[in-house]
Predict the structure.
Amino acid sequence: MNVIYTPEVWYFLVMLLTFVGLAIIKIPISVSLMFSALAGSIAFGEFFPLRHLVEGGFGYIDTILVIGSAMIFMESIKVSGLLDTIAGNMTIALHKKPTFLLVLLTFFIMIAGMITGSSTATVLTTGAIAFPVLKNLGLSKRRAGS
């Protein structure tokens, strides 16, 4: 039996094309994944698989809560100006000692992850603050961004 003719391949292709199409028009990834799952279920013949969507979501409720609360916490300290203040003070105090600045900046980025438990929240907030500091140290835009 040829693999192309199995129904699962067609469901996968429907989901893949839906996801790629939504990504091309700049829909957020989370929304694209949700619509891809719905497109796959419609292709399978089940219009709205509420039971599967709810069970799948509750399987990751602890992870969702950790990431959500970490994003709220990190965004609140970013908006309050605390992250900018810390990064600015580190740069002013250690601009003549780049090795120490780099070590302290690494700790600055890691401490946010230790507090929140979410690397996603940390990278999205402290990474944006650390970029100008790394660029001022003489790193290229590409290296500072990665």
Notes: The mean pLDDT is 81. The helical segments are 7-24, 29-44, 50-59, 61-79, 82-94, 98-116, 119-136, 141-145. Residues 63-145 form one domain. The chain is about 80% helix and 0% strand.
